[in-house]
Amino acid sequence: MLIVRLLFKNAFRHKFRAFLTILSITIAILAFVMLRTVIGAWYAGVDASSASRLVSRNAVSIIFPLPLSYKDRIQQIDGVRLVSYGNWFGGIYIDEKNFFANFAVEPNTYLELYPEYVLAPKERDAFLKDRKAFAAGKKLAAKYGWKIGDIVTLRGTIYPGNWDFVLRAIYHGKTDSIDETQFFFHWDYLNETMKKTAPSRADEVGFYMIGVKNPDLSAAVTAAIDKNFKNSWAETLTETEKAFQQGFIAMSGAIITAIEIVSFVVIFIMLAVVANTMAMTTRERIGEYAILKTLGFGGWAIGGLIAGESVIISLCGCLFGVAFSFPAAAGFKQALGMYFPIFKVDQTSLIMALVFSLIVAVLAAVVPIQRAIGIRIADGLRRIG
Question: Which of 139, 320, 323, 324 has minimal Cβ neighbours within 10 Å of its Cβ?
Fold first, then answer.
């Protein structure tokens, strides 16, 4: 206990210096945790993917459609439990800055395939019965103040024109990892309109969502689907939902890599700050270490005092940084929740912050310890006064 008190007194002997060092570490840890949380939010859709769902799209590119007639052929493949389909709509609400995912789906099979989207029974029935109905996530509806029965107009980009929809259901996620910012409506409404305005684009879907009877059958079902449509005018590329999500993330791989690099650069900056503080502290206390040597203290004891002081300063900054990361994440989510629907500090980021803080503390103390142990008693005593 006496040693701990001594370490704390040494660490805060120069209060202003200790405050600035801890503040620097706090900012560094806060930045590190937030950057790692951004990376985690980027992969949130991948983590929430189901092992029992597949996605089939055009083998050339997702921007090319597939015939609606593929649905029945896919349904007949062994291992397939359920088939749904949809199109990315890409509509704009009032202004381009109001971005959110909006797409047309076959509602009955879609809701059965995605039970994590929870709708109230009455709202679900109303949504299924009304051809112009749409369902919105709880966060999306809250952001724009939408209420059940409101008419919402989207300006089409992929499908030109102004499209009116009626809000019939507001869903919430079964768990906190479910995206609650989506907008989906009846595929039939889109298709019927296309038959009138652009017949060549009717009866086409952008992707098929396929539920398999057993996750172990995913590989076999994937191969069977693609084999079934091989050499057709619209070949398919079928993959697990997780792989499909990762494909989108791969498009922004350079951004994610840059964020990861910056997060580790922050740790090196923290190392420089702590090392500089410990170097100054050791230089000022060379005389004290010489006296300790004359009293019989060995190199391990002196090294322990220096390392302990470094650990205390680093851990104080780490704890403050971790504590501030939670309100910072909450503020970030409130400001940019539409772009990062799932944004929360995970345990892995906190453990990494703690481990790196300890590593920084040890590395920052190495050179000062060598200097304190290596100095001769006579040279150290000359510096007193």
Answer: 323
Q: Which domain holds residue 331?
A: 2-44+253-382
pLDDT digits (tens, 9 = 90+) for 262-310: 888 888 888 888 888 888 887 777 777 777 777 777 777 777 888 888 8
pLDDT tens digit sequence for 341-354: 667 788 888 999 99
Indicate yes or no: pTM above 0.85. Answer: no
Q: Residue 372: which of 311, 298, 270 has the closest Cα?
A: 298
Final residue before a domain boundary, out of 181, 202, 234? 234
Q: How many domains does the chain divide into?
A: 2
SS3 call for 236? strand
Q: What is the DSSP string of 101-129?
A: -EEEE-HHHHHHH-TTEE--HHHHHHHHH
Residue 261 token pair: 């690099």
Please state whether beta strands 117-118 and 161-173 pair in parallel, antiparallel, or not at all (unpaired). antiparallel
SS3 content of the chain, % helix, strand, coil (to 5): 60, 15, 25
